[in-house]
Amino acid sequence: MPGSLLVSIVDDDASVRESLPDLLGTYGLMSRAFSSAGEFLSSKFIDQTDCLVLDVAMPGMSGPALQQELSRRGKAIPIVFITAVADESLCPQLLAAGAVDCLLKPFSEAALLDAVTHALRAR
Amino acid sequence: MDKELRHRLVDRRRDEARIAGENRLLEMVARGHPLPRVLDELCRLAEDLFRNCWCGVVLVDPSGARLERASAPSLPDSFIMAVNGRPLRADSGPKAMAAHLDEQVIAADLASDARWAESGWREMALSHGVHAVCATPIRSTKGKIIGAFAVYFRDPRTPTAAEHTLIEHFTNLASIAIERARDEESILRSQMQLAGEKRLLEMIASGHSLPDVLNALCSFVEEAAPVCVCGVYPIDWSGPTFHVGAAPSLPASYTTPIEGLPVRCDVAPCGIAALLKTQVIVEDIETDPQWHGSSYRDHVLAHGLRSVWSTPIFSQEGRVLGTFAVYQRKPGAPSLRQQELIAQVTHIASIAIERVRAEAALRRSEAFLAEGQRLSLIGTFSWRVATDEIKWSEEAYRIFGVDPGTPVTIGLVFGRIHPEDAPGFMARTERARRETDDLEFECRLLMPDGSVKDVHVVAHPSRDRRGQVEYIGAIQDVTERRRSDDAFATLRSELAHVARVTTLGALTASIAHEVNQPLSGIITNASTCQRMLAADPPNLAGARETVRRTIRDGERASEVITRLRALFSKKTSTTDCVDLNEATHEVIALTRSELQRNRVILLTEFADDLPPVNGDRVQLQQVVLNLLLNATEAMTAVEDRPRRLVIRTARDDHEGVRLSVQDTGVGVDLDHVDQLFEAFYTTKGNGMGIGLSVSRSIIESHDGRLWATPNDGPGATFLFSLPSSRSVSSARVIGFRKRA
Asked: Peptide bond preceding A106: is omega within 30 degrees of 0, i.e. cis?
């Protein structure tokens, strides 16, 4: 597995920002956590990001809105959506808009790894 | 004796006779002889001193319009009659002219004097052998014209110089006599009137019947003004019709048609008086053009009456209660004195009629009160603390199940108190004796048939002039209400639960979010831990950190579940001291994702010094939750402005607290703002309307108030206020009732 890949995590929930980088780290993946879409967009890591793990519902710009913004900017970053809101219609929409996967919180380690590796392959 | 000496002797005798006569007259005046006798005496004395003449005195009536009370002892009644009542005009006759012009009037030869030919006075005087006249005005000490003194000569001539001096003497004497008599008469009259008035007012005060009082009133007027006949006609405005209140000197044939006579301007002068609120004077019904050809005219004339004076009787507020009618058998207008009398008695009649009507109204309202007490199951009582003297209203007797009229003793009361409530009741009454404060409590009565009544008692102490304490209060049978209260409380609780469940549906996503977040953290951390421990060498420090996070997230999830369980479980209410800020924070925590999902910007402005409130924490949170969700929903269609929601807490007036939820949504319609709070009223498709009515019911059960106002800008603000626990404790009802 390539060692220089960067997974960026955008989630307003501190628990996710704390736990996900550690888990991904055990798989040798680099990761950066951002608490909002704005913080990610204005960071220098936007162009180095190989996979984006993105929360759906956030204050300010939501996950899907960030997806659109990246698409508008021509940044083709593979996205894995994560959401705590069980909305059956949401995931198909996001996938249709180009997302690699859509995970419902709480997700298993395997599901996450599956989605992230899928995204990295799709790069 | 020579001629001159004889003349001087005659003059001297005449002077002596005059002086003796004057002294005699003054003595009569001083002794208070009746005025007609004094004036007759004065005329006779004058006639003795003048040659070949008659003398007369006439008075001007108090109104100054007519001559009255003529004296002329040596002239026949026909002459006197012709003088009395003449208007005070220059053409009526010499005395009227003198009084009118305030100057002496001399007619040296009536036969060739045309001044009083037209009025008929000249012919009348000539027919009595009068051929010349000298009329002199009589002035009071204040210069007012009070009468006239006339010397009627049998031959055409003028008074001599000596006679002029005598005339001056006699007018002075007449002035003294008239003034003195007038003073006495006026004192006597006012004494009589006062006595009459007092007698009438006493009759009214001592509760004589209205017909008795009005009859006495008419008799009083008829005595004071003997030429008058009176009637009092109260009006029943529901008709409106006249009734005969009293007319003691009028025959039934006169009064019968008045009973039930419609109050109209065209039926009688009384109708005009009542409707136009003015006095109506018909001087002579026979000639009055207004009543010409009317059946009223025939009716009055058929009873030998000519003049009718009708005066409205006003209530204190100026309503017309009826009319007072005065009739005379001859034409004429009321004199000033009669007018005074009329004013006086209409005032008394007004008092009498109002008093009777007020009493009738009082009896009616007492009946209403008794009926009201019966319907509302509220009895009233009084309790003199020092003597234990107790009085009950009829309904109080009914509540206690005691025959009305039975003397009430404190023992009788104690005997009805439910044994379980008796110690509390005793303690409360003992405290009332000691402390004299407002009483309010509930207790149970055990009735002789074994049934139990719940009663609510409220009483307020007052002190009489001797400082004795008396409680005046009300006792209400609340047995039925208690039952329906219990039923209502159950219903409210059910409704609240339904509302909670409804809310639960709306909140599913939010709840899932709140639970899933920490679960997600737990699984991720546990997975990480597992991997760290499995590594070679194991990452123990990392594993320890992930375990710490796992525990933390587990606790977080558990907190969410605890809050949810509290908020949505069906449990009966409990009362604690609630920090509204904290309680609101918890609600916000549950709804955060719902707000986010709806792109609602939530701002909080919480007061730091908010006093706690007494109440059911979960119920109050339920209200906050409802307001929050409603506000969020009101903004779902808003795209052209920020969806901003502001929750504020603040101190209210009177130590209360207030919470407001302000949104920028579609707003409320002022016309329908009250409907918003009605159960099942909703302006929204997915029906959260039940939340508002239940919310209001919850807030009101906390002695608070919930209402809505439109914002200055877009949106609405929903607010509730609650008394703080400090203000509540002092106002709490004192209750010692043990619930079974």
From this structure: yes
Q: Is the minimum CB–CB distance between A58 and chain B shorter than 8 Å?
A: yes
Q: What is the pLDDT of residue B1?
A: 53
Q: How far, in Å, CA of B64 to CA of B84, rounded?
A: 13
Instruction: State residue B735's pLDDT score.
Output: 34
Encode pLDDT of A16-61 as tens digits. 999 999 999 888 889 999 999 999 999 999 999 999 999 988 878 8
Residues (pLDDT < 50) of chain B are: 679-690, 729-740
Which positions in chain A touch B532 (Cβ < 8 Å)?
A: 22, 26
Residues of A in contact with B596 (CB under 8 A): 57-59
What's residue B566's pLDDT? 66
Give the C-alpha separation, A23 to A12, whole Å.
18
CB contact under 8 A, B593 and A57: yes
The sign one gets for the Cα dihedral B594, B599, B600, B603 is positive
CA-based nearest residue to B108, from B87, B90, B135: B135
Asked if B527 is an interface residue toward chain A (Cβ–Cβ < 8 A), one would say: yes
CB spacing of B535 vs A26 below 8 angstroms: yes
Which neighbouring-strand residues pair with B232?
A: B246, B324
Q: Which tokens is B447 given?
A: 């009735």
CB B345 within 8 A of CB B246: no
Question: What is this model's ipTM?
Answer: 0.83
Residue (of B709, B718, B724) closest to B653 by Cα position: B724
Q: How many residues does chain B have?
A: 740
pLDDT by residue (tens digit) across B57-76? 999 987 788 888 888 999 88
Q: Return the pLDDT at B71.
A: 87
Say what the pLDDT of residue B97 is.
Answer: 92
Instruction: Centre a 10 Å sphere on the Cβ of residue B494 and count the other Cβ atoms it contains.
Output: 12
Put simply, whether A26 touches B (Cβ < 8 Å) is yes
- At B301, the amino acid letter reads L
Amino acid at B469: V
